[in-house]
Write a structure and sequence with these properties.
Elements lengths: L5 E7 L5 H12 L3 E5 L12 H5 L11 H12 L4 E7 L4 E9 L4 E5 L7 H6 L2 E6 L2 H15 L4 H20 L8 E4 L4 H14 L14 E3 L2 E3 L1
This protein binds adenosine-5'-diphosphate and the ligand Nc1ccn([C@@H]2O[C@H](COP(=O)(O)O)[C@@H](O)[C@H]2O)c(=O)n1.
Adenosine-5'-diphosphate (ADP) binds next to α1 and α5.
EC number: 2.7.1.48
Pathway: Pyrimidine metabolism; CTP biosynthesis via salvage pathway; CTP from cytidine: step 1/3; Pyrimidine metabolism; UMP biosynthesis via salvage pathway; UMP from uridine: step 1/1
GO biological process, one term: CTP salvage
Length: 225
């Protein structure tokens, strides 16, 4: 356990490649990175029936428990562990169990609205926005939601048109202006290498560092050298 020396926020639209970027950084830098997916901070909706939870707008800022996220981020930044909630997309709710998360040298906060909240932005040392065209993002989302999140095609399309797209335009895309760095098309090799160089430079002396040749970008099961 260590007190983090550097916190990064990675925002961007659904399917932009945020998780892929965060995972690549974490895999390269290893145990020195703690990842905080904002999805875990969706409000607890246990008081609603499944059909009601299905109808919630999950792309509006009010869907998230910002107070808890701020509090837990501050706790990690002060070098103490947290009990992080876990989220199940198939049931549209938190699971019953939390996971103990220890702070490490680098914190990576990742999610559609990672740069939305002013207080959270101020806790971050580097703000990244992953920018990918909407058509690419919706195609990726359809594949992911059907395969991994138990959704049907019609539902994914309806949700996209009714809430995901308008909320993206209203709340997510404007946070691009808050970013220090914009990564085009997600995991682009040069941008990721620069990000990893920056992260490695922030590691305390004595931490393991990987040469660029040992770095890999992976998209699910496919690996791109
Ligand atoms: N640069 C890329 N090229 C090709 N596929 C990508 C790229 N970035 C991400 N993907 C794929 O797109 C899907 C969504 O990526 P993900 O990182 O989960 O996006 P987000 O976290 O922004 O929703 C995943 O299946 C991932 O493997
Ligand atoms: N029950 C839920 C909760 C969230 N979503 C969608 O997830 C998207 C954010 O996750 P990404 O990995 O795509 O960034 C967001 O656009 C929500 O619409 C959901 O479908 N169901």
């Amino acid at each position: 356990m260590s007190t983090p020396s550097f916190a990064i926020g990675i925002a961007g639209g659904t399917g932009a490649g945020k998780t892929t970027v965060a995972r690549t950084v974490a895999e390269t830098v290893g145990e020195a990175v703690t990842r905080i997916p904002i999805d875990n901070y969706y409000q607890d909706l246990s008081h609603l029936a499944f059909e009601e939870r299905q109808a919630v707008n999950y792309d509006h800022p009010s869907a998230f428990e910002w107070e808890l996220l701020r509090e837990q981020l501050e706790t990690l930044l002060s070098g103490r562990p947290i009990e992080m909630p876990q989220y199940d997309f198939e049931v549209h709710n938190r699971t019953d169990e939390c996971v103990t998360v220890e702070p490490s040298d680098i914190l990576v906060l990742e999610g559609i609205l990672a740069l939305h909240d002013e207080e959270i932005r101020e806790l971050l040392d580097l703000r990244v926005y992953v920018m990918t065209d909407a058509d690419v993002r919706i195609l990726r989302r359809i594949e992911r939601d059907v395969i991994e999140r138990g959704r049907d095609l019609e539902g994914v399309i309806d949700q996209y048109l009714e809430t995901v797209k308008p909320m993206h335009e209203r709340f997510v895309a404007p946070t691009k202006k808050q970013a220090d760095v914009i990564i085009p098309e997600g995991a682009n090799r040069m941008a990721i290498d620069l990000l990893i160089d920056k992260v490695q430079a922030e590691l305390p002396d004595g931490s393991n560092r990987l040469d660029p040749v040992d770095r890999k970008l992976s998209f699910n099961d496919r690996t791109v050298d």
